[in-house]
């Protein structure tokens, strides 16, 4: 039986198991927490391999999220973002073959930090609901950024946090919209990751072992979402996104 399992170290298995659990929580309760898993996996696995390990876990967790929140999505938002996100994925497919991980990770962190600063000024100065940037230019920029970063390193979470918070959605609709959006993108990305060599038979075997942990995290996330007030929900998401963006950006100096 154990011959089926990839030959990872104990630390690698513990990190992978923790990541699967946190992904489950992020998909149904705290989306911002998902971004911390990107640098966590990259610390113990080769960078390209870490993204290939992560994508199937995300895709499986998306199924849990959509199953529970399937009726809460705002399809106008999803359809507005999707064409731009697909374009971003196309750009990311080209870019990922041209740059190394030492450049890619801090670049993503820097983008996220810029977006979080923009979100701070949005909250400070755009107090009137009519001034929320809902036009196509804002959707295009955010969709392209999300598509690019998700293809590079599965790191579009903070970008979608900022965009969906800007739309001022209720908690359930926030989670449902994000769940459908990432379900579509992540399953579309899988063939591209296979062609890039980032997903292999070995990584798929490892990911399948984590399925019970993904499910456990998803159920815990549903519980957490019901208990957290909307104000604190928004604050937690932004703090988590900012903290991880700083971590990624500091890799410029590492």
SSE arrangement:
Layout (H helix, E strand, L loop, with lengths): L9 H19 L8 H8 L2 H23 L5 H21 L5 H25 L10 H18 L3 H10 L4 H26 L4 H9 L1 H17 L2 H20 L5
Helix pairs in contact: 1-2, 1-3, 1-10, 2-3, 3-8, 3-9, 3-10, 4-6, 4-8, 5-6, 5-7, 5-11, 6-7, 7-11
Short key terms for the protein model shown above:
254 residues; 11 helices; mainly alpha
Report the mean per-residue pLDDT as an integer. 82
- Overall geometry comes to globular
Distance linking N and C termini: 40 Å
Proportion of beta-strand residues: under 5%
Beta strands, count:
0
- The gyration radius over C-alpha positions equals 17 Å
How many distinct folded domains?
1
Helix/sheet category:
mainly alpha
Number of helices: 11
Low-confidence stretches: none
Biggest beta sheet summary: none
Give the helix proportion (percent range).
Answer: over 70%
Helix-strand string: HHHHHHHHHHH
């Amino acid at each position: 039986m154990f011959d089926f399992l990839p030959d990872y170290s104990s630390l690698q298995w513990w990190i992978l198991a923790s990541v699967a659990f946190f992904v489950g929580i992020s998909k149904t309760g705290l989306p911002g927490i998902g971004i911390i898993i990107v640098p966590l996996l990259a610390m113990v696995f080769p960078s390209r391999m870490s993204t290939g390990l992560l994508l199937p876990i995300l895709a499986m967790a998306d199924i849990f999220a959509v199953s529970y929140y399937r009726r809460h999505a705002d399809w106008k938002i999803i359809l507005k973002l999707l064409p731009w996100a697909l374009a971003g994925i196309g750009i990311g497919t080209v870019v990922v073959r041209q740059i190394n991980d030492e450049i890619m990770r801090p670049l993503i962190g820097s983008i996220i930090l810029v977006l979080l600063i923009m979100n701070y000024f949005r909250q400070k100065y755009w107090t009137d609901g009519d001034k929320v940037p809902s036009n196509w230019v804002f959707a295009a920029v955010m969709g392209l950024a999300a598509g690019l970063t998700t293809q590079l390193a599965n790191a579009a979470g903070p970008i979608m946090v900022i965009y969906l918070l800007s739309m001022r959605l209720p908690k359930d609709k926030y989670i449902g919209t994000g769940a459908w959006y990432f379900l579509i993108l992540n399953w579309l990305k899988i063939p591209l990751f296979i062609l890039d060599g980032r997903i292999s038979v070995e990584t798929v075997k490892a990911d399948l072992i984590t399925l019970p942990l993904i499910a456990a995290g998803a159920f815990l996330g549903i519980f957490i979402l019901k208990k957290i007030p909307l104000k604190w929900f928004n604050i937690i998401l932004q703090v988590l996104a900012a903290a991880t963006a700083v971590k990624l950006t500091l890799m410029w100096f590492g």
